[in-house]
Amino acid sequence: MEKVTVNTGTKYDILLDKGILDKSGELISQVIKKGKALVVTDDNVDRFYGARMMKSLSDAGIEAKKFVFPHGEASKNHSTLLNIYEFMAENGYTRSDFIVALGGGVVGDTAGYAAATYMRGIDFVQIPTTVLSQADSSVGGKTAVDINGGKNLVGAFHQPRLVICDTDTLNTLTLEFFSDGLAEVVKHGMIKSCELFDILTNKDIKENIVDIMKRNVTIKGQVVENDEREKGERMLLNFGHTLAHALEKYYNFTGLTHGCAVAVGMSTFTHIAERRGMCKTGVADKLDALLEKCGLPTTDPAPLHELYTLSLRDKKHLANGMNIVICSDIEQSGVVNMSINEYAQFLKS
Prior knowledge:
Layout: E1 2-6, E2 12-17, H1 24-29, E3 37-42, H2 43-59, E4 64-69, H3 78-90, E5 98-103, H4 105-117, E6 123-128, H5 131-137, E7 142-147, E8 150-157, E9 162-166, H6 175-192, H7 194-202, H8 209-226, H9 241-250, H10 258-275, H11 283-293, H12 304-311, E10 317-318, E11 321-329, E12 332-338, H13 340-348
């Protein structure tokens, strides 16, 4: 079993291996010594892993109930959040109890925010079951729900007590969803690691998945350690996301997955940066080739002028302009602050 430790205000381990889902109750009991669990998951994940998760907790002597909501980004809202609160209150959950988030990014973000806010904060454990959530969203303590004004606009920083990544759970993903999660993996290579970028480019991804995931959570963990509250270096993790969130909003969170939107965002900004002399020539083509290998798009027909307007609602829009992430080369990334006019001209180019 591989282990990566994240040294934030709440120190925790990320455990990675094939086939460790059935050991999760035992692993959790070594970290959280008391209280009952609420397993929060969606209907898709529940069909595959809900019963196994509950048995694992029971075998470890942990009392647990399960809350299941409809899968998809459309469920990542205050209605689902309030239903979780009510379920916990009706079943007598207290500050001594904890949440287990079993699923992808939507489950992790929503369940994590419920844990951050129920009774002003309780413990939670992340058990991510998608490429995207294992590589990225389960690590770092970002929790949130969407509102009509935009994605992830209401949330809190709340670090998990433990993250358990069973890479065998990725075997039940469709090719589309496996590819979707690889966008965040490519992102980590672009912003921080030539070595990871080269492995993704030159090796079989599925055959090397445990090593790839370990490299990803190591990168993510180090960035989070350096900047837990996203005041500096952690902003680099937003590479591709400024345009991605606008794309998701443009399509009303249907039809275009998060990973596909991030892929388009990374490619678009890198091509623009090359044309403006902000990026080494040829980087955009290397990025596009890897995205295409991963089954991800590099363009989208949505009109840029509408995406510009939607992107101004993003969290990266500040009083003094926009913070956007540019990679001047693979492994060379930085945050560029632009005025709103400069940002508009950047997109027009």
